[in-house]
């Protein structure tokens, strides 16, 4: 067996299952889960109809490159969303089977674990830099590519942005891939243009690829101020897409996680090698879902309606929870990143007792992070995914408020 598999840690939800083992929630409370970031809003009718109308595509093998109409639809969306003058659908766009699959596979394409940048690094594996807390796929992708993950802690004083200036130069020299997540999971933080300027300069100096995970980019609260994207930052800084790719998905934007439909866009040379890898990897997007994805990317009405539903929930729930926890509206995405230290409980104790007493599930922040540089930046926080309907989210928030107040009595 591949010995690198032994380096993988249990997924956060497996850790949560172990944490809750043996706990029987108090009777009288229906279960409410804020634990998993799975959209619960109804799938738009236009996408459901498009799937039905494309069922004849089940008789055909899907092309790894994706259909020309789909690549054209994605390129048009990217240009419109980020104000880009040109995106070549033939070379700068690649449909994928959801951003999760592509985030993992990209590392297998980019990382060269056999070569070192100089003689001083001869005994050292390449580095994949990750934010901390982070989406665990980044770590697994790095380890199975033969690289070493290096975690850059988010800082509450910097609106949970990572301090990349604190990364030693010898680490940057070994870095081959940098994962960024903007809007961030779990904090919702969005990279600023100055953040991007710093990262591009580092990439230019050290030659690493930047993978910008932007699957939450369409969940935000101000229609006049959508989150900045990596390709957009490149345009604003008057540079090309060299060593930069962004990944996006329909899962959150259009409430179709079961379609596993997304794309990668950016540096044509990176995508050329990524396409070669994926041709053997065998993860082509279903022809049925390719055709349905065209309908999704070409419509913004359902996306605005989706944002309005999240805004209503956040505007209602955030003030309720702010009365008992240290929490505020994020920049974007559908998570509240709540500091529970004031309750006197650790994040795991808080999650376990809330589940036992009120049958509400939240995810301990320490499960979403690693101890790095003397601290686990997720400790003392819980992630609350406001993915259910408004009434369920409000009821869950009411129970959390009651639970926190009971701790004071």
TrEMBL record:
- Which UniProt keywords are listed? Aminotransferase, Transferase
Q: Give GO MF terms, alphabetically.
A: pyridoxal phosphate binding; succinyldiaminopimelate transaminase activity
Task: Pinpoint the Aminotransferase class I/classII large domain residues.
Answer: 32-392
Hydrolase found in the keyword field: no
Q: Which Gene3D superfamilies match?
A: Aspartate Aminotransferase, domain 1, Type I PLP-dependent aspartate aminotransferase-like (Major domain)
Matches recorded under PANTHER family: AMINO ACID AMINOTRANSFERASE, L-GLUTAMINE--4-(METHYLSULFANYL)-2-OXOBUTANOATE AMINOTRANSFERASE
* Protein name per the record: Succinyldiaminopimelate aminotransferase
């Amino acid at each position: 067996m591949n010995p690198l598999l032994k380096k993988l840690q249990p997924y956060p939800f497996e850790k949560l299952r172990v944490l809750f083992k043996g706990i029987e929630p108090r009777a009288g409370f229906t279960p409410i889960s804020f634990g998993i970031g799975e959209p619960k809003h109804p799938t738009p009718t236009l996408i459901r109809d498009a799937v039905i109308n494309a069922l004849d595509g089940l008789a055909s093998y899907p092309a790894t490159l994706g259909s020309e109409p789909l690549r054209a639809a994605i390129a048009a969306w990217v240009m419109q969303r980020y104000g880009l003058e040109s995106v070549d659908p033939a070379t700068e766009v690649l449909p994928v089977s959801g951003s999760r699959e592509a985030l993992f596979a990209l590392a297998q394409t980019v990382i060269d674990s056999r070569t070192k940048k100089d003689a001083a690094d001869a005994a050292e594996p390449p580095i994949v830099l990750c934010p901390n807390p982070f989406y665990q796929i980044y770590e697994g992708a790095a380890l199975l590519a033969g690289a070493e993950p290096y975690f850059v802690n988010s800082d509450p004083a910097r609106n949970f942005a990572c301090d990349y200036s604190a990364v030693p130069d010898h680490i940057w020299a070994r870095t081959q891939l940098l994962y960024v997540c903007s809007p961030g999971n779990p904090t919702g933080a969005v990279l600023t243009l100055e953040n991007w300027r710093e990262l591009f300069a580092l990439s230019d100096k050290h030659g690493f690829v930047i993978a910008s995970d932007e699957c939450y980019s369409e969940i935000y609260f101000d229609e006049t101020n959508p989150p900045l994207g990596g390709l957009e930052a490149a345009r604003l800084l008057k540079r090309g897409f060299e060593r930069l790719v962004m990944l996006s998905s329909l899962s959150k934007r259009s409430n179709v996680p079961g379609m596993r439909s997304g794309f990668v866009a950016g540096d044509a040379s990176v995508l050329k090698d990524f396409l070669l890898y994926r041709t053997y990897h065998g993860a082509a997007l279903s022809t049925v879902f390719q055709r349905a994805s065209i309908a999704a990317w070409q419509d913004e009405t359902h996306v605005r309606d989706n944002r309005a539903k999240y805004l209503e929930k956040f505007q209602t729930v955030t003030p309720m929870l702010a009365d008992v926890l240290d929490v505020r509206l994020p920049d974007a995405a559908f998570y509240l990143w709540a500091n529970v230290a004031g309750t006197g409980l650790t994040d795991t104790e808080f999650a376990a007792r809330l589940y036992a007493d009120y049958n509400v599930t939240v995810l301990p922040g320490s499960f979403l992070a690693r101890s790095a540089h003397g601290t686990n930046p997720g400790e003392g926080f819980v992630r609350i995914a406001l993915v259910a309907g408004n009434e369920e989210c409000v009821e869950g928030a009411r129970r959390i408020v009651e639970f926190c107040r009971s701790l004071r009595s």
